[in-house]
Amino acid sequence: MDSNKNEKVMLIMLEFTKAVISCGGHTTRINSSLNRISKKFNLEFDLLITYRGVCISVWKKESPCSKISGACSYAFKSINMNMLSLLNHLTWDILEKDITEDEILNRIEEIKKTGRYSPLLTSLSVSLSCAGFCYLFGGKYIEMPFTFIGAFLGMQTKIFLTKHQINHYLTPIFSAFVASFVAGLLLQMCFGEISRFVISTCVLFLIPGVAIITATADAFHGYNDSSISRLLSAFGILTGIAIGIVFSITILGFKNWM
């Protein structure tokens, strides 16, 4: 009986950890949440997060030989603060209320289906942000609409590729290419020249800021494996953005980058 219960708790922890990682949670958040779950069931646990997978072991405090381990792979999807908040609330409900293991698993599955902002609203928001940054970084008012259009189409490209599960590192290449090429081409057609402010700011929505922040947080708290894996992922995305921009400015013949 204890063995079956421990196995179910281990499964809960795995599913919970996968859900948190998939929407951008850092390791400290995961560890504190798993502490609440393990406290509820009077268990100890070990957690290991690698570049592509999660490994968790659980055992009873008074019986270290009862250790049960499980592992699974995970995939980062996109930032979802609402989902992170719901998962955090769930761990407090587990600790303070009488919830069965099956109910916990069902609630995790329900939380995974949490709706996100509409793709159109997301695209409009990031496009406005990129247009604003264009002006803040030294661009002209007349250049802001071109940045907006490029960022909007680039974001739509990213959403489309993500929906069809295109490789995580190919997506920023194509998205950056579409954003910078469209913005640069329209600007060139209207004014006969390309602005470096437009090209550099229309792709800012692709910058993996959350990955870099969570990697830094993990490093400060001693989770070096997780920190390195997140930094490598962020570096891959940044490289993809650079490749996409290089392709577009080469086709457009833009040489005045500096």
Which structural class should the secondary elements be placed in?
mainly alpha
Instruction: Count structural domains.
Output: 2
Largest sheet: 3 strands, antiparallel
Order of neighbouring strands in the sheet with most strands? 1-2-3
Oligomer: single chain
Shape: elongated
- Our count of helices gives 10
**End-to-end distance:** 68 Å
Low-pLDDT sequence parts: none
What is the CA-based Rg, rounded?
Answer: 22 Å
Proportion of beta-strand residues: 5-15%
Report the average pLDDT across residues: 89
Helicity level? 55-70%
Name its key features.
258 residues; elongated; single chain; mainly alpha; ThrE-like_N; 10 helices; 66% helix
Write the layout of secondary structure elements.
Layout: H1 2-22, H2 27-40, E1 43-49, E2 53-60, E3 63-73, H3 81-96, H4 101-112, H5 119-136, H6 144-163, H7 171-191, H8 196-201, H9 209-220, H10 224-252
Antiparallel strand pairs: 1-2, 2-3
